[in-house]
């Protein structure tokens, strides 16, 4: 499956570079629409610590908590990190339901993973009155999280490519909460008229997506991917 999950025909999320000031970020994006930020941080040192070999050497025997990849995710499964990487980190089965698909994102033990996160350089922008919390993930090609919403945040790709689909709070997407993003892309997305399609774009390593409060979003890893989000709570 690797390499067969397509990118979008055209990125419809606005982009900005390191010239974007904090005041302009607050004025143009923070409370109104998503933006892809390029060149605002340098995480080459963090990326060097996130190779398969380095992560297995540092965290192999430690347990990680996996979540089911559905919108209302209740089931959690704890497995050793090495078992996840060697046996569960596979391309998404298109026929598998979200409730049967295990996904490693967040639920990290900060006692064990904290030293790694100290090397991460977060985006320089904040929303007044919030504080940041990290969620780190690794997932196979074709995997992802179906549509859901929560508070604002940033997401950065460390390895691989990650396709995003976003709708504003007042435009609830048409989806089944137990359908994986891959199944939604294959079955529902082609039936949507252009006016009902989401904002979408593919993030590459070093790019950061910002999404405002309560925006619907779904993700799809186009490759085996390593990624980290900074949630603003």
TrEMBL record:
Q: What is the official name of this protein in its record?
A: JMJD8 protein
Species the sequence originates in: Chaetorhynchus papuensis
The JmjC domain is annotated at 99-233
* GO cellular component assignments: nucleus
Q: Which PANTHER family match?
A: ARGININE DEMETHYLASE AND LYSYL-HYDROXYLASE JMJD, JMJC DOMAIN-CONTAINING PROTEIN 8
**Entry-linked Pfam families:** Cupin_8
InterPro entries cross-referenced by the UniProt entry: Cupin_8, JmjC_dom, JMJD6_ArgDemeth/LysHydrox
Any one GO molecular function term: cis-regulatory region sequence-specific DNA binding
Gene3D superfamilies cross-referenced by the UniProt entry: Cupin
């Amino acid at each position: 499956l690797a390499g067969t999950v397509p990118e979008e025909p055209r990125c419809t999320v606005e982009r900005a570079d390191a010239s974007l000031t904090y005041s302009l970020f607050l004025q143009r994006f923070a409370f109104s629409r998503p933006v892809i930020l390029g060149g605002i941080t340098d995480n080459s040192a963090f990326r060097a610590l996130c190779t398969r070999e380095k992560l297995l050497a540092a965290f192999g025997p430690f347990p990680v908590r996996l979540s089911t990849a559905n919108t209302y995710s209740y089931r959690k499964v704890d497995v050793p990190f090495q078992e996840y990487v060697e046996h569960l980190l596979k391309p998404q089965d298109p026929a598998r339901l979200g409730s049967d698909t295990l996904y490693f994102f967040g639920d990290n033990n900060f006692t064990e993973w904290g030293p790694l996160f100290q090397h991460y350089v977060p985006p320089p922008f904040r929303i007044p009155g919030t504080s940041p919390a990290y969620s780190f993930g690794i997932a196979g090609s074709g995997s992802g999280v179906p549509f859901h919403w929560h508070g604002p945040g940033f997401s950065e790709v460390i390895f691989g490519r990650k396709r995003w689909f976003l709708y504003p709070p007042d435009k609830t997407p048409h989806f089944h909460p137990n359908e994986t993003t891959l199944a939604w892309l294959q079955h529902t997305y082609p039936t949507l008229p252009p006016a009902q399609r989401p904002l979408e774009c593919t993030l590459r390593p070093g790019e950061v997506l910002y999404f405002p409060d309560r925006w619907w979003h779904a993700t799809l890893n186009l490759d085996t991917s390593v990624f980290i989000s900074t949630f603003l709570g």
